[in-house]
Design goal:
This protein is mainly alpha-helical. The protein folds into two domains: about 1-50, no CATH class; about 55-110, Herpes Virus-1, CATH 3.30.40. It contains six helices and two strands. The protein has helices spanning about 5-10, 15-25, 25-45, 45-50, 85-90, 95-110; strands at about 70-75, 80-85. Strand 1 and strand 2 form a beta hairpin. The longest helix is centred in the N-terminal third of the chain and has 18 residues, at about 25-45. The chain is elongated, with a radius of gyration of 19 Å. Keywords: Metal-binding, Repeat, Zinc, Zinc-finger. Pfam families: RH_dom (PF13901). One of its GO terms (molecular function) is zinc ion binding. This is Low quality protein: pleckstrin.
């Protein structure tokens, strides 16, 4: 991070050096490197991988993360993450939300 820890804590704060890099066109390269570093950390850190998701549609054992924008989609209601390809096939929305609604309906009948 080169003394830029503030980017992790407050991603909407910029230093004068950041603004200069933006003007020079160098900031995008820095952000690409930062995203690559952070992604590799998450994929290999035992603690961080526990914050990932298993697709609740296909139940494949690979852990997926919400920052994998090209291959995943996130439920706007419960924030569960699915493979985009799985979500496209499923009719009726999020299976986790459907299970929760069904459970709440059963609980209301008791």
């Amino acid at each position: 991070l080169n003394h830029r820890n503030y980017l992790l804590e407050s991603p909407h704060k910029y230093s004068v050096a950041d603004l200069q890099q933006i003007a020079d066109g160098a900031y995008e390269g820095f952000l690409d490197a930062l995203i690559g570093f952070a992604s590799q950390h998450v994929y290999h850190c035992d603690l961080c991988t526990q914050r990932g998701f298993i697709c609740q549609i296909c139940h494949h054992h690979d852990i997926i993360f919400p920052f994998e924008f090209d291959t995943t989609v996130r439920c706007g209601e419960c924030k569960t993450v699915f493979h985009q390809s799985c979500q496209a096939v499923v009719k009726g929305g999020c299976p986790r939300c459907a299970r929760r609604r069904k459970y709440q309906e059963r609980s209301a009948l008791l």
